[in-house]
Design brief:
Blueprint: H1 7-13, H2 26-37, E1 44-50, E2 56-57, E3 71-76, H3 78-87, H4 100-104, H5 111-125, H6 143-157, H7 161-174, H8 186-200, H9 205-213, H10 219-229, H11 236-253, H12 261-264, H13 272-284, H14 290-307, H15 314-334, H16 343-359, H17 365-375, E4 382-384, H18 385-418, H19 426-433, H20 436-455, E5 460-461, E6 471-474, E7 476-485, E8 498-504, E9 514-519, H21 526-534, E10 538-540, H22 543-549, E11 556-561, E12 567-571, H23 577-581, E13 608-609, H24 624-635, E14 644-646, H25 648-655, H26 666-682, H27 687-706, H28 712-726, E15 735-741, E16 757-761, H29 764-776, H30 781-790, E17 799-805, E18 811-816, E19 828-834, E20 846-850, E21 856-860, E22 866-869, E23 877-880, H31 890-911, E24 919-926, E25 929-937, H32 942-946, H33 948-952, E26 962-964
Parallel strand pairs: 5-12, 7-8, 8-9, 9-10
Antiparallel strand pairs: 1-2, 1-3, 4-26, 6-10, 7-11, 11-12, 13-14, 14-17, 15-16, 15-17, 18-19, 18-24, 19-20, 20-21, 22-23, 24-25
């Protein structure tokens, strides 16, 4: 719906961990943790008996029988208790010490449970972490009591149907860490031990990568051989660690006796799922064919997921989840034994592993219903290249969605812990590598390599081994320093002449030469639209790709994305003469456009009723947001709110006032700054110095505008029109203040999201201050840099303001009246997120292609845990999302389809426009009612789309080429 510049603030300060809590000092916390590592008691103060009557007794004074039984365990240090109370950070948690509801921590999106899992991970990779010495503090933790508490926790938790409906993935993952059955997580331990060895002895890194990426039973002998080869260089500690790793690997790869699953299903006898499990055991206990075993195991995984709610007993649900984990472990071990020889076998393997991923919770059941028909289309003799490409795209999606499920559940806590313990950042990667998604990704990559060979659509990505997992989003080319950001991107100061690879792009990205992201957000976010508009090459890649490219960070590279989405990323030394010629120095004005100001009317100094504004006023009285929304109000009155428009003239009238501390007006100060900048250029002063001068002057101007006195007659009119048009007095109704400049939605420049929108503001003084903040926003560094990059006369920016009442939508998003993914001009692209504003702000949105001929295709589900609500009291409320249901329903999709037809047919006629391109529409639904918030032309970079170079690297693909599914892969 609307660009929320405060999203980052909300995530940082209103997150479940920090909500209502004091902000911690990361350096102090690092120091505190270092002290616990060296303390023989770790985070614990002492040991006590905790008796049944609530009394606490000394270690040598057990609970008497008449008030027993009691449990003995440690108490937390006072500072650890304060950390939990003040900051919701919990170190060294003891299950026996924690009530089930507190540990589940539903009010804070289950943060305590997730922190318990992070703690377990950190202990495994950092020799006990906060318990480095405290792990030997005898009596602090009683294993049998912890396990009993784990069982009690699950028996409490699994009585709740909604927990399994909404949090199946998290609950199932938690079983890997919370003691409840005596099982060990050998897979996670194997990865941790190999990491610790490689960190201490770099020569082991190659084997560590193998164990993390493609673990096989044969790796045990490789580790033994490594130990033997390096025996003269290994100290006692390393020898012990290698021996421990070999023991763990031996346990992990020990064949699972399928008959033993029956002992885990004792309480399920004669139930439907119990019978299914018995059938599986009898059919597969002696099977030697890996294909049959993997197919049957994936089927059972999914059946357990689908049927677990029918089993109402919590102990039986716990058994089913334990069996599910064992089945995934069995898959993980045996998938390498399935070596497809033909294309059909490869497609079957992918469909089978995707089904297993759904059963393990990495995808939701409704998502599987959307993609399963595509993935199972291999019961035929041949397919066209286009059909195979659709399967490949869908299969890639399953891998991305699986990884995104892990990130959505744990990223918040990982970010928090990483601020004081950097090792935490490996947790998400560890979870993904320990899942069936690892093997699914490898299988999809193999299919991608095959299709790339058949279509000649081949990526060239430095020397990485899996380039087919990279896919282009926006065409373009760039040359510059490669910067690979493995951690959080929010504190990175980007440069317009560098190429960046992020896990997720910053929410307020400034101009860059090129970009690639693991979490692409969605294809219609403001960042994506700006990249598309300006011809900035943009691609999506995998976590593994990012890790492989880290070693090239800091090198100069050439980067290009073709019109068909194939990607080139190579060192400067390998550039061709043609590629070098693309970056010959050009005149500053080349490819830039001029903001039209000849029609602007600055004499309109009265507030306008939105009903009296239409498209013809764009660039004259106000910007295109207000003009186009006024047009929509005329056309779809019941779908557009009432509104006020503060025109350009009121802004200019205020800018003509004397600027405090200066000899001129605000406007003259701005003009003088640009004149001085031109004079500096005429003296051959570097562009960097000129830009720094301008940014300093703009800071002065912004500060002055924010302190500007608003004219009394303007405030009087604003109060009158709030009451007359919006129906309530100023200060009684929450509104959005939307920046609406004359530099937006030009023929060749979108300007999407560059200037400030304040949302859901109620307080009168905040609204008045907000008007000044919006006026000042075109002079921020980010907005100015984007304009400088593309506009000839960036000084001629005039902001108007659209003031509209808030609509607390259930979900909102963007409609593009063009199939961006399909390439069909008649299709539609939609991206929606829960709550207000997530889709345009780059959140991972639910995205569809809606086909012109009927039907639709899910391109991505929403994977954002938090979303904004808009309470009547103003500001934002933050809600927690779960993913078990789609954002859009069938009725919504049908209404969007019909609305798009109406727009295409009537908008050019109503506006007397010859524009025949696609539209970018922001909209939302509240109680299934469609609300419209904005419409603008969808602007693409025509130069990038028609570039001779990009055309030359775009292969001519025969989409109708037919391939027999019996074709061999090699």
């Amino acid at each position: 719906m609307i660009k929320y510049i405060l999203i980052t603030y909300a995530i940082l300060f209103l997150s479940p961990i920090a909500n209502g809590q004091k902000k911690w000092d990361a350096d102090q916390l690092k120091k505190q943790i270092a002290e616990y590592k060296n303390d023989i008691r770790g985070p614990y103060k002492d040991i006590r008996w905790f008796c049944g009557d609530g009394s606490v007794r000394l270690p040598k004074d057990p609970c008497p029988e008449n008030i027993g039984p009691g449990v003995q365990h440690a108490r937390y240090k006072d500072a650890v208790l304060a950390l939990g109370k003040d900051h919701h950070i919990y170190l060294g948690q003891l299950l026996t010490y924690t009530a089930a509801a507190d540990f589940w921590d539903a009010e804070n999106d289950h943060s305590r449970l997730k922190q318990y899992q992070l703690d377990k991970y950190l202990r495994s990779v950092d020799n006990g972490w906060v318990n480095q010495k405290g792990q030997f503090y005898r009596g602090a933790v009683q294993a049998e009591d912890e396990e009993a508490s784990g069982i009690a926790f699950y028996k409490w938790l699994l009585t709740k149907d909604n927990v399994l409906k909404q949090n199946f993935f998290l609950v199932r993952q938690s079983l890997k860490d919370i003691p409840h059955s005596g099982d060990d997580n050998f897979a996670q331990l194997m990865r941790s031990q190999s990491k610790v060895i490689a960190d201490e002895y770099p020569a082991f890194m190659e084997l560590r990568v193998k164990i993390h990426g493609q673990p096989e039973a044969d790796d045990i002998e490789k580790v033994k051989a490594f130990r033997q080869k390096n025996r003269a260089k290994l100290n006692t500690s390393l020898n012990q660690k290698l021996n421990g790793l070999i023991a763990t690997m031996t346990n992990f790869f020990e064949p699972l006796d399928i008959k033993n699953l029956g002992t885990k299903a004792a309480a399920l006898k004669s139930t439907p799922l119990g019978n299914t499990i018995d059938d599986y055991i009898s059919k597969n206990s002696k099977v030697s064919d890996p294909v049959q075993l993997i197919v049957e195991t994936s089927n059972l995984l999914l059946q357990i997921r689908q049927g677990i709610l029918a089993e109402k007993r919590p102990s039986s649900r716990l058994q089913l989840l334990d069996i599910s984990l064992k089945l995934e472990e069995l898959l993980f071990k045996n998938v390498p034994n399935w070596q497809p020889q033909t294309l059909k076998q490869q497609l079957q393997k992918i469909e089978t592993l995707a089904k297993g991923a759904v059963g393990a919770g990495y995808l939701e059941l409704w998502e599987w219903e959307q993609i399963q028909p595509t993935l199972s289309k291999f019961d035929t003799e041949q397919m066209t290249l286009a059909q195979l490409t659709t399967i490949l795209e869908t299969a890639r999606s399953t891998v991305e969605w699986s990884a995104a499920m892990v990130k959505a559940n744990y990223q918040e806590e990982v970010n928090t812990y990483s601020s004081f313990e950097p090792k935490t950042y490996g947790f998400i990667d560890d979870r993904i590598r320990g899942s069936i998604a690892l093997h699914l990704g490898k299988s999809v990559g193999d299919l991608g390599d095959f299709i790339a060979r058949e279509s000649a659509l081949v990526n060239t990505i430095m020397d990485i081994t899996n380039p087919s997992t990279v896919r282009g989003l926006n065409p373009g080319y760039a040359f510059g320093e490669l910067v690979v950001v493995a951690g959080s991107p929010e504190d990175i100061e980007v440069s317009s002449n560098k190429i960046y690879i992020f896990r997720k792009s910053p929410s307020d990205l400034k101009p860059v030469a090129g970009i690639a992201t693991v979490a692409e957000g969605n294809m219609v976010s403001h960042v994506q639209l700006l990249a598309r508009n300006l011809g900035i090459p943009n691609a999506a890649l995998s976590d593994e790709n990012l890790q492989s490219l880290l070693k090239y960070s800091g090198q100069n590279v050439f980067y290009a994305v073709s019109n068909k989405g194939n990607v080139i990323l190579k060192p400067e030394s390998q550039m061709t003469a043609q590629e070098r010629g693309l970056f010959m120095k050009k005149n500053r004005s080349t490819d830039k456009i001029e903001v039209p100001i000849e029609k602007i009317r600055l004499d309109q100094t009265q507030i306008l009723n939105l009903r009296n504004v239409d498209a013809s006023d764009s660039g004259e009285l106000c910007g295109p947001k207000a003009a186009n929304l006024g047009q929509l109000k005329k056309m779809f009155s019941d779908k557009v709110v009432e509104g006020l428009v503060i025109p350009f003239g009121i802004f200019r009238e205020h800018m003509d006032q004397a600027m405090p501390g200066q000899n001129d007006s605000y406007w003259q100060f701005l003009k003088t700054m640009f004149a001085n900048a031109d004079e500096m250029r005429s003296k051959n002063i570097s562009e960097a110095e000129v830009e720094n001068f301008q940014l300093l002057q703009l800071q002065i101007l912004r500060d002055a505008i924010n302190k500007m006195d608003l004219k009394a007659e303007f405030i009087t009119q604003l109060e009158r029109d709030f009451k007359g048009i919006l129906g309530k007095s100023l200060g009684e109704i929450p509104v959005f203040l939307r920046s609406d400049t004359n530099m937006e939605d030009l023929k060749d420049f979108t300007g999407a999201g560059l200037n400030l929108t304040l949302f859901n503001v109620v307080d009168k003084q905040k609204i008045l201050n907000g008007i000044k903040q919006v006026w000042a926003s075109p002079y921020t560094e980010r907005s100015f840099k984007w304009r400088q990059k593309y506009l000839l006369n960036p000084e001629n920016v005039f902001p108007s303001i659209l003031v509209i009442p808030s609509v607390d939508v259930d979900y909102s998003g963007v409609l593009i009246t063009k199939g961006i993914n399909s390439g069909n001009e008649k299709d539609l692209t939609v991206a929606f997120s829960r709550g207000a504003g997530g889709a345009v702000d780059g959140q991972s949105a639910e995205t569809y292609t809606i086909y012109d001929k009927g039907g639709y295709r899910l391109l991505a589900p929403a994977r954002e845990t938090y979303y904004n609500s808009l309470p009547q009291t103003g500001g934002t409320g933050q809600q927690t999302a779960t993913f078990e249901k789609a954002v859009l329903n069938e009725k919504n999709i049908g209404e969007i389809r019909e609305f798009a037809k109406t727009i295409r047919k009537t908008l050019p006629k109503e506006t007397k426009s010859d524009y025949d391109g696609a539209y970018d529409v922001e909209l939302g639904f509240q109680n299934d009612k469609l609300w419209l918030f904005q419409i603008r032309p969808f602007v693409e970079n025509k130069k990038a789309l028609s570039s001779e170079y990009l055309e030359s690297i775009t292969p001519k693909i025969d989409s109708n080429k037919e391939l027999l599914l019996s074709t061999r892969l090699q």
